[in-house]
Structures
1.
Amino acid sequence: MIAIIRERILNMIYLPGEALPVGILARQFGLTTRQVTHRACRHLIAEGLVHHDNKGPHGPGVYVTQPALQTVPHHVPPSQEPGPHRAQNPNRLAGGPR
């Protein structure tokens, strides 16, 4: 459940400033809203993806805080990391002849 909610936030299905649909998530996963809040939201709050706001724009609830690009560190696979062998032959970076 946590991974699914995280993925939805990172894929911008749940947008920054938007209330997390805790009731819908509870029905989807067969849980109570309290269980969703305690099980998933505490992890997502710790990650900085959501925050609890008692005076939010749509009332008390859990709100998405960060755009996906600012919350996940960019990972470059080792095969694509720049290195001396890549810098010596700029054609390789552009997919040119080797």
2.
Amino acid sequence: MKEADASIIDEVVVTGIGTQKKIAVTGAITNVDVEELKYSPSASMADALAGVVPGIQAMQTDGRPGSVSEFWVRSISTFGANSAALVLVDGFERDLNEINVEDVESFTVLKDASATAIYGSKGANGVVLINTRRGKEGKININAKAEGFYNMVTKLPEFVDGYTYASMANEAKIARNQEPLFQNEELEIFRLGLDNDVYPNVDWMDTMLRKGAWSSRVSLNMTGGGKTARYYVGGSYYDQQGMYKTDKSLKEYNTNANFRKYTYRMNVDIDITKSTLLKVGISGSLRKQNDPGVGTDAIWTTLMGYNSIMMPIVYSNGYVSSWSGKEDNLNPWVQATMTGYRESWKNNIQTNVTLEQKLDFITKGLKFIGRFGYDTDNSNWINRVKWPAVYKADKYRDTATGELKFTEMAKEQKMKQSSGSSGERKEFFEWELHYNRGFKDHHVGGVLKYTQSAKVQTQGIGSTLENGIQRRNQGIAGRFHYNWKYRYFIDFNFGYTGSENFHKDYRFGFFPALSGAWNLAEEPFMENVKWMDMFKIRYSWGKTGNDDLRNSANNRVRFPYLYKMDFLYNRDKDGNLVDGKKTPVGGYQFADIGYDRYYGGIGYLSMATPDVSWEISTKQDLGIDFSFFEDKISGSIDYYNEKRTGIYLERRHLPWTVGLSAENYKKEKQNVYANVGEVKAHGFDGNIKLRHKINNVDFTIRANMTYGKNEIVERDEENTVYWYKKQAGHRVGQAMGLVALGLFKDYEEIRNWPTQFGEVMPGDIKYKDINGDGKIDDNDKVAIGATKRPNFTYGFGMSVRWKGLDLNVHFQGVGKSTYFIDGSTVYMFQGGDGWGNIMKEMAESNRWVLGENEDPNAEYPRLTYGNNSNNNRASTFWLRNGAYLRLKTLDIGYSLPKAIVRKMHMNQVRFFFIGTNLLTFSKFSLWDPEMGSSNGKKYPLSKTISLGVSVNL
């Protein structure tokens, strides 16, 4: 007998209440091929999601070892609370970045309300469901995989040499009718390298960075068991080296930005009886991060700030150079090799127990599931910081002796140590009652679910009592579904959830959802359409909630219905006592002249807002799932519409007649928060796959896309006669700035143009007078471009298999992304003090040069030595397109023939090559466009080539 091929209609889809056949799903749910997530060289699965999973948009903004991508389901639809998706691993809320991809059995994304309403207060931003691998009955099965990676940066900023920098500094001075900074003789010294102490020429990027760095990853897992008990055991080790060069004489410690991660997992399934199944799981991870003493962010700030002529690495007399004595402005080589080191650790232990009891003795199709989880997360850090004595030489030598004159910028600091720690404990408990039954052509089912969770901070809680109080959620949820002949489907879901974050009168929220589907292919009038296997049309409507409220600083808010009061002392913007003294403010002087009887007052730290409640998202989704020609062509397309109301935000524009204090203890304006924001979002996502076999060649062609657009409907804003200045009506995070119309041609044009900012000369940026009032100012700022976060993400590729060879190619790209570039490197010579660099691309561009290239359409304006209040402003002139397309993955593998493998007493041996981020196509070329950085002061992203072997025993 020949085994029948699996059909996409019978494919099992993981949902929030168990598993369903794909044909029966009425919500927007995407099953992800886990194998596609294994190509990423990162320790986090989040880095592999962009362009692979329809409905997910992701962005990697930092390439530092151990950093991870941010991702969100569909469009950003809030500006007042957490926008991250809920991640559930084996039914428990956990961190996606702690999981080893080799342990994952299934990866599912729930996108619409019908799929997420059952999670009540936590499903507003979508849900990611991950099920880990379980044991299987049979002999022991061992899988081992080892990979070695070589990481190189995708794109580094390139800077000019010393001679070019000095020449352009002169150009900037002369262009503004000032004396040149360097004489011609000095320029020659730069060019010929005759005096490296006073006229250095240092390539700091080359001095600091390696050409590449090695990483490795090893994983091992085992499955097996008998009829009564089955097990899965897995572990992995990941080691990523940093890109910094190090001082080889240092033997006691490492100053590079290294990252290591260990993971382990054990799942055991025990059949207590024929109808009782006990599942026990334990897992955990340990992450260790290493950095130079001043930290990675400080290094990239100085790398972009130190130009080639600023100073040598070390003066000829052995003095160590530095721009200043501040640790975040030290010579970059000093920062990387002479400032000590930082170490941080993060570890977690996750345990869970699940009991499944079939209740067929009551009625067929009835089942009970109970779960309990207990997690602990702890992190700690130790900083050991030091630096040598550092000096800065005067610009000119002593005229009599020719010796250098030095200023000591900072004395030597012996190594000092500081440390800190944090930790939390989480508890989960839930039970579910499932019922599924078929009655001829009728199929019915339902789920009733109770859940409660608690999370408490266990370390670093300080003296504030609320930090030690558990964060608790409690809820009951349910689902009822029915279909007739797998042709017509209807589902009803609800979540009734409570949060301790709200006043008792607003603590519980009800979140219902309704969905339905029609499988056109099962209709009798479609019997003769043999090529249509499935064509399902579905629609859903529902509400979900969010109780994770954030304040204007994006910190979590607890108990907003309670007020907070304290003595008023003079504090800085961060809430710290000025000069460490409790200097009272807001009090009253009771003494006569010459005496001091001043008593400080007590005031509000925050106002009570008892009516604060849930952020509520109302979602609609219209989609189709299709499969044609015996599953050779399959896919899905969804259009969604979402409205987020009750967004929690600060009331910044209440009149003073309300009676609130003008300032709080941080000397900031004191206002109240309320559920007054509203955002609407819409878009579409979809995927299509073509699978075919020609002789011995199997191939798959696939593509997916996700597009989302949002709009702020309501936000607490000051009224203005210029509607375009308000955030309402624009995207969340919309770029706002002036509209540039090129550069001024001559003084005649300047005289006939509306007044702008400061003294304007030919070659300076010309702006559009939006409101027509005859002057350019902040009232002429409008929405320009899009947002830093991409609104459009897509991916496409193909897989081919022939005998033992296999090939996988995948491209990924984004669109509808723009951001400003700025800072000391973009605004050349902005400080007027020698700080800042010049990028080659800008120096070699068609820039405006007095007497040489006075082109009003030049790519760069007339130079200024010092800040230019007219040119150095956010405008379309500095707006850049963040769109890109990159070869995300190239995977080539070869599996040894079965005959050879069996002689080696193995089941399978595969050798493979994987390249990631090998090619990038983008109009933006200063640094990697995916970073979305305005100034490039970030650890760069990596492209990787790797070789590996996987073995199955």
